[in-house]
Specification:
It is found in: Cytoplasm; Nucleus. Helix content is about 35%, strand content about 25%. It is of the alpha+beta class.
């Protein structure tokens, strides 16, 4: 009844100990189009479903390269994602200029978590209405982190956020044991299959609405230590979708039926 008395700013707690503006920001993440992240022993993959506001507009960007060893996938308000991605790019560039090396994944994720959590402590500010999946590789190997508007961050083996993401999480949980030993192409395939689980009956993955980002360790015998972040978008993702259709002809109908019943 008195809920509106406690949601005018982000520093007022309700009698139940809740901060409604943080919950509103988390709801904005749930309304965004879905993104999926997976990690194996050698690679980390981000897969996103792009959305256009209307027929005359272009599709929103869902996966952003931060540095050669790291990228993010966004779900929620694109404007807030732009602020955070620019901040992450500045921190990455500062690390290379100051220390001559790429910034570790856990450090930059902690920095954006602190930045977001600060917004829940000061009157006149609001939480960022965006969730991020941060994928990258450092000296310890590939990593995947989830960032929430409250400032909470934690490392994940696989994750999905956004609208209808529960069906993607169900797929990820069902196949979790396969991810650590998966090859680069197998990990991409798993990500696209999880993304396809979230589609409604009348939609399918196309070169216009699908995007993939991948980063990982370089193959043995290569001079480089890492395989730099590569973004597949537009026509470049066509072969990946064709390979996915070729490997799932037998079970595709069953997967769509499962989506429709939920």
């Amino acid at each position: 009844m008195f809920r509106n008395n406690y949601d005018n700013d982000s520093v007022t707690f309700s009698p139940q100990g809740r901060i409604f503006q943080v919950e509103y920001a988390q709801e904005a993440v749930k309304q965004g189009s879905v993104v999926v992240g997976l990690v194996s022993k050698t690679h980390a993959v981000l897969v996103g479903l792009k959305r256009n506001a209307e027929e005359l507009s272009s599709y929103q960007k869902k996966v952003i390269e931060i540095d050669s060893h790291m990228g993010i996938a966004i779900a929620g308000l694109s404007s807030d994602a732009r602020v955070l991605s620019n901040f992450m790019k500045q921190q990455s560039l500062g690390s290379r200029m100051t220390y001559g090396r790429a910034i570790p994944l856990d450090r930059i994720v902690t920095q954006i978590g602190d930045r977001a959590q600060t917004n829940t402590q000061h009157y006149g500010k609001r939480p960022y209405g965006v969730g991020l999946l941060v994928a990258g590789v450092d000296d310890a190997g590939p990593h995947l982190f989830e960032f929430q508007p409250s400032g909470l961050t934690h490392e994940m083996l696989a994750c999905a956020i956004g609208a209808r993401s529960q069906m993607a999480r169900t797929y990820l949980e069902r196949n979790l044991d396969e991810f650590p030993e998966s090859s680069r192409d197998q990990l991409i395939s798993h990500g696209l299959k999880a993304l396809r689980e979230t589609l409604s009956q009348d939609k399918e993955l196309t070169v216009e609405n699908t995007t993939v980002g991948i980063v990982g360790l370089a193959p043995k015998g290569s001079k480089a230590k890492i395989e730099t972040f590569k973004l597949y978008d537009g026509q470049s993702i066509g072969p990946l979708l064709e390979a996915l259709d070729g490997t799932t002809d037998g079970g595709e109908e069953g997967g769509e039926m499962e989506v429709d019943t939920q």
